[in-house]
Amino acid sequence: MTQTPVPKLILSLSVPTIISMMVTAIYNTADTFFVARVSSDPAVNTAATASVGLVFTVMAVIQAFGFFFGHGSGNYLSRMLGAENHKEADEMASTGFAMALIVGVVFAIAGNGFVDPIADFLGATPTTMEFTRQYMRIILFGAPFMMAQFVINNQLRFQGSAMYSMIGLMCGAVMNLILDPLLIMGFHMQVRGAAIATVMGQFTSFVVLLIGTRKGENIRMSLSNVHINGHYLFEVLNGGAPSLFRQGLAAISTLLLNRTAGALGAVTMITIDGTERLLGGDAAIAGMSVAGRILLMMASALIGFGQGYQPVCSFNYGAGLTKRVKEGYFFCVKVSTVFLIAIGAVCFTFAPSIISLFSHDDAAVRVGVDALRYMSATLPLSGVIVLSNMMLQSIGKGFKATLTAAARNGICFIPVILILPQFIGIKGVEMTQAVSDVLSLFISVPLAYSELRKFVD
């Protein structure tokens, strides 16, 4: 961690995480792909696709807490390993895992007790309500395993065991990809099949990752090392708050996006093949959901690349080698920006063909294509935004990291989604993420620079 050339080290750690993130994104998108084929009736398929998009808000909240405990405990244990304080590293690993399991159980019980009001709050319409309830109930039951596997996954990465992390996620992905077509199309379980496939995939990852903690020199989980006290709670909060804000605000943003798209779609007229027709709330939600999932899949490589940098960053910062932290940051920003320019160009050019793979509703495709093109145009900005956040988080600058995390999905996104559609309608919904990316750049860069200038060259 402290001797290998920084670019070589980051690439060696990031390849498994890139593969992990890409595979995870693919199997997350698989639900949308197969749910769009639950019926021979296009209206039913659109409603099913929209319901999966609505429940994505709940999944984002579960993921937010998983990353909160995972990044909070992982950042701290990595710094402790760099400082050769193995006792606190061991205790933090078990404590972070235990916290996630406890909160996951609370989510499963409380969430299933309030499924109907939650579905209504998410913006479910009469045509999507039943699908939304079915999908959400099963997803909530899997919350403890989802949160816990995010924690183990991140802890393994921060120990430099990215390969074990990749294996765990890939096993879950394979399980999901096998069960999706089997349950949805073979057993005709519709959205229930998609939810079961997702939860079984997460459970498989949980089991395999848990086994991975007992391999090699990885930290073993132990009940005797669980210490839920003020010290560890503070460190989890300091290191995990940026992730909680980032993912939590993503959930709020998705909620506002779906509700706004649904409301505007219900009153917006569009022209398709020379015929004027109502866009429809379900079609607007489905189109935005598909575009968002595709962009998430495309950006997952960036997240994986950044995750390869994080253990290098935190370990070397803990060891006092700030020159290597700075070198790694600029290396990652340069490589990721070039990559995102290429990916953005492909998505922009082939947007109609890509969106059509997931929806056969002309209205939903129209919305999805426009949204994907706007998102693709600003995708290259994500490199510096995401890596600035990851660098600040990994060196323990919780407040600054929280601000950068909140920028893209909160500080900038929420005002834009509330204001822009009021002036330009559904087009404002489609443009919101792109406008937010531009604005968040002006927050992330100064905050990253404020720390980078302190590092020794």
Report on the architecture of this protein.
The chain has 457 residues and is mainly α. It has one domain. Helices cover 82% and strands 2% of the residues. It contains 17 helices and 2 strands. It has a two-stranded antiparallel ribbon with strand order 1-2. Strand 1 and strand 2 form a beta hairpin. The longest helix has 41 residues. It is globular. The two termini are 18 Å apart. The mean pLDDT is 91.
How would you summarize what this structure contains?
The protein is mainly alpha-helical and about 450 residues long. Helix content is about 80%, strand content about 0%.
Question: What key attributes describe this structure?
Answer:
two-stranded antiparallel sheet, 2 strands, mainly alpha, single chain, 457 residues, globular
Overall mean pLDDT stands at 91
Q: pLDDT under 50 segments (min length 5)?
A: none
Instruction: Tell me, briefly, the overall form.
Output: globular
Terminal-residue CA separation: 18 Å
User: Strand order, biggest sheet?
Assistant: 1-2
Query: What is Rg?
Result: 21 Å
List the helices and strands and how they pair.
Layout: H1 6-35, H2 42-82, H3 86-113, H4 115-122, H5 129-141, H6 143-158, H7 162-186, H8 190-212, H9 230-265, E1 269-272, E2 275-278, H10 281-318, H11 322-349, H12 351-356, H13 362-378, H14 382-394, H15 398-411, H16 413-424, H17 426-452
